[in-house]
Amino acid sequence: MTTVLLVDDHPLFLDGVRAALTGVPDVEVVGEAHDRREAVEKAAALRPDVVLMDLNLPDGSGIDATREILATAPDTGILVVTMSADDDAVVAAMRAGARGYVVKGAGRADLLHAVATVAAGGAVFSPAVAARLGSWFSGLAAQPGREMFPQLSEREREVLDLVARGFDNRRIARELFLSEKTVRNNVSVLLSKLGVADRAEAIARGRRAGLGQDPG
């Protein structure tokens, strides 16, 4: 039996997805969540095989919820619900650990295929999204700062790179599709790991390592 948790704050969409999944052999909708906090809590309590995750939630990003869920339940299959597969947020969600996406308004057959694929450990990508993810992953090894800051996670290096460009927390949040609170936490952690007193020192350290360069 594949268990599914639905995460969305639009009742009509939830009704439609629930109706599409009801009666499908070996699929059971075990719960619904309407915001990020509830999604994380219910995913921890219910341990569903698949979470259908909206990206835009009332109290934060579905990308943040994806990271939080996978931090405690890495085997959960996160299936992003999106209006457009070309949205940069879709790629950000895949980088956070989501296994694929389903476009809002997709047919029942497409939805069931996506759920079954993710439940089986597979991924559901369009060629465009797959190409962008491939470019991102292939470029990781060549990123400045990887050898100089081995104590930092990939996310913390991304934040340091943007800090080194002089971006404030609000701009960094927009660039990485994170909440400002998450960015503040990341900045605090990386300052501690770098052993620097403030943001200015972090900028200097990052720039000496080749971070903070304008990619364009």
TrEMBL record:
Q: Where is the HTH luxR-type domain?
A: 145-210
Q: Per its UniProt record, what Pfam families does this chain match?
A: GerE, Response_reg
GO MF, one annotated term: DNA binding
Which intervals hold domain Response regulatory?
3-119
Name used for this protein in its record:
Response regulator transcription factor
Provide the GO biological process annotations.
Answer: phosphorelay signal transduction system; regulation of DNA-templated transcription
**Modified positions (4-aspartylphosphate) in chain numbering:** 54
Origin species, per record, is Nocardioides ganghwensis
Where does the source fall among the domains of life?
Bacteria
- The entry's keywords: DNA-binding, Phosphoprotein, Transcription, Transcription regulation
Checking SMART domains in the record gives: HTH_LUXR, REC
